[in-house]
Amino acid sequence: MKYIGIDLGTTFSVVAYLDELGAPKIIRNVDDENITPSCVATINGSLQVGQRAKRHAHNVPEEGAKTFKRKMGEQFEYQVGNDVLSPTDLSALVLKEMKLLAESKIGEIQKAVVTIPANFAHEARDATMHAAALAGLDVEFIINEPTAAALYYAYAEQEDLFGTYAVYDLGGGTFDISIIKVHNGDVEVLASNGVSQLGGDDFDKKLQELVKEKFEQETGKDFDPEDFTEFDAEQEKITLSQRKRTTVQIGRSLIDIRREDFEEALSSLVAQTEMLCEAALDDADLEPDDIKAIFLAGGSTRMPLVLESIRRVFGKDPTSTADVDEVVAKGAALYAAFKSDREGLSDVQSRALDKIQVSESTSMCFGTISRTYNENREEYELQNSIIIKKGEKIPVSVTETFYLAADGQKSVHCRVTESRTTEKNPKFVKIVADEHLELPGGAEEGDEIDITYSFTE
Length: 457
Ligand code: AMP
Known about the structure:
This protein is an alpha+beta fold.
């Protein structure tokens, strides 16, 4: 049986499968690369995905779209040449490309798992499932990126993981920090925090700004972004991960960029990641010393500045692997097979999965808006009542009892709310569903009404 895992990333996507020996392997793309840019462009009238699309979108921006994962679940439209596409449509095109790639290498695929950031809101989660269906994938499960990464490290480290770990994921477009607990092979996300607008792309922009500043200072001329694009900036950024300085040629001028100047320009972005790490530790009620190891994911964790920042926050060296860009996809491939009925797996594949167990927890609070008596103010007011708390182990089902407000009430107004904290004020929570449910006749004030929320895998 063929199982694949797809890391649908903001800047790059990766697909992995479980080989005959039960090891997750990357499927290389048409350019013989392990990672494929999550870019779509119209080239000669047809929609294309990947490196060619990235180049085309760079040269003719109105014919391309990128970083659309940041808009998943939102009402947003991209004009790509003559097509108007939603973030879901664009993600479906990337997923389809990954599926075709996998099929061309390993044949028909039975099951796929797609990953999402742990802090993705409900709509973004649904939009991802929808994109997978549009791409023709049989996706029963999605898995949080940090859980997938942890799963891969658990598998790759060979020895059993036991205790509390952090997964630090800094890719091209998003940053995520998750605190996980591994107990008898069971991976539980205790806390997760992140921002969907912070990553390597932002570092590229900062480097472009730095080059602009230096060029204008040194030459007195105006900087033309075409002379040193974000594309060029990305290449120089990667150079600065290996070397302490680099020289950029703009026209006839040579601009010297030192790593320390670049790092200085990134300080506010890195400070933001540090605050989020500290907040995640707080949420999990842990001190840095409680963290046994920090697992890295995402290409930007190759930067010396990032490694130094992690050491500063956690007081120890992180655990890395050469393939930080691939750990999420490989973990997802393991999970796809792990969640299968195992009947299609060979004995060797099955044995490879025996050590793994995974459970996930909710990354948001879900509640409803109810009328509650405020004793201080001696009046009724609307309040957000949390039903499923953040951090509940998935799958979870919770029933809360509410009371009817009036005799002869004909319906109840049910609003499903989502919030990052146990927020009571309805103004500060997001409404993710809004329905009027009919009641049978003869209802009286004070009658009980049970509301059950279930969060499935
Ligand atoms: P990912 O989404 O995990 O594939 O990460 C992609 C991001 O990692 C892009 O912004 C890349 O420019 C960045 N990246 C990859 N390798 C390096 C490196 N050696 N130094 C700095 N950034 C890197």
